[in-house]
Amino acid sequence: MTITPETTTVSHRLAVPTVAAGTFAIVTSEMLPVGLLTPIGAELGVSDGTAGLMMTAPGLVAAVSAPVMTLAARRLDRRTVLCALMALLAAANLVAALAPAYPVMLAARVLTGVSIGGFWTYAMGLPVRLVPEPRIGRAAATIASGIAVASVLGVPAGTLAASAAGWRVAFGAVALLAAVLCVVLARLLPPLPAERAARLSDLWAVWRTGPSRIVLIVTALVVTGHFAAYTYVRPFLEQAPRDGAGASAAAVGAVLLGYGVAGVAGNFAAGARAARHPRGTLVTLALLIAGATALLAAVPGSIGPVAALLLLWGVAYGGVSVTVQIWIVRAGGGEAGTAMLTAVFNAAISLGALTGGRVVDGMSVPAVMWLGAGLSLAAAAAAGMWGRRRTSGS
Fold first, then answer.
1. What is the full DSSP assignment across 175-222?
2. Most buried one in 157, 171, 254, 304, CB count within 10 A?
3. Helices H, strands E: what count in the chain?
4. Which domains does the chain have, with CATH numbers?
């Protein structure tokens, strides 16, 4: 059924912010270890680099589950699928909160990855089915805003909660949120039967199309670079300031909160510009990330300048998700494009965390900032060269 202003019900209107809350829970779950690597590693007896596998595992699994879910659940009602995935997220975070050893924690993070990949694949396609045409853009921005809000409230709040009551409480709180959202989604989402069964050929077609392919390549570069560095931002903050001891747990939480606020600003600022110029917007964002991470590694300073550079980093990365989503749609990717973008995005998170961990254990924590800068610069160059090729008609 086509949604019009006359047929839009209160339930439909509440469904959009509810799905946005779901994306908030998903991203908070995925990113939560960023602020908790040190205490989790200390309690479970692993190094910072090994603890970073808590980011690698869900990202890798999500990269696989996004296209697999597109094919496996192609005839199922999307409401049922989304509720099941949110219930799985609740269970995964509960297992993480109770994990007696690191292998159990990794198993919980694998389950988290299944939920992430599937939920994102379907959530991004819901606006057209929940609101009338004039409001589709706003609904899409609202659902995507869960990413930025998770950066502002989710990860920093988890870090602060862990500093006060322990990291297990942080995972338990997210488990409770996901359980509540499972019930709310079941109540507020209308029936969403599958409209068209996706085929494997639809997914491969995204890679064969030049405009879609460059979006996926640039996304892989910038997201890998970001998470190679950002996954280890807590150890960096604890070691990097040159004016004495590193930042305290409370200071880390405060800095990450500022990073998240900057990310929200970047999300809406980039979204407005990306609607007209997604490629150029991504080039600008990637250059800002490269500059911020390079300066963090190169310039000795106190916690004040370090925090300022993290704010710049937050503004830049806050706009990446909405920009690549708009870009893949503009490139004609469709639902298959969204599934492949979800896969690449999460594979890049996994690869970035894994590569960063090897650099941290083999070299130093500040070295990952150089890695992030280099990959972000490569993303800007790839997007820029694609633009010149299209302009020249080659």
1. HHHHHHHHHHHHHHSPP---SS---HHHHHHHHHSHHHHHHHHHHHHH
2. 171
3. 19, 0
4. 10-392 (1.20.1250.20)
Q: Which of 113, 96, 233, 257 is nearest to 166 (CA)?
A: 96
Least confident of 26-40, 234-248, 274-288: 234-248
Angle, CA 325 vertex, CA 112 and CA 185 arms, to 5°: 45
Let me know the angle formed at the C-alpha of 239 by 236 and 245, rounded to the nearest 5 degrees: 140
More confident residue, 41 or 276: 41
Q: List, for residues 179-213, the tens digit of each pLDDT value.
A: 999 999 988 888 877 666 566 666 666 666 767 78
Task: Count the helix, strand and coil residues of the chain and give each as a percent rounded to the nearest 5.
Answer: 85, 0, 15
Q: Which residue has the higher pLDDT, 251 or 190?
A: 190
Tokens 């995507």 locate to 144
Q: Compute how many other C-beta atoms are within 10 angstroms of the C-beta atom of residue 394.
A: 6
Rounded-to-integer distance, Cα 310 and Cα 316, Å: 10
Total number of residues shown for the chain: 394
Give Dmax over CA atoms of the chain in angstroms.
Answer: 63
Alpha carbon distance 329, 338 (integer Å): 8
Helix boundaries (H) for 275-333: 278-298, 303-318, 320-330
Contact 98, 138 (CB under 8 A): no
pLDDT, tens digit, for every residue of 338-386?
Answer: 778 888 887 887 788 788 888 888 787 788 889 999 999 999 998 888 7
Residue 231 is given by DSSP the state T
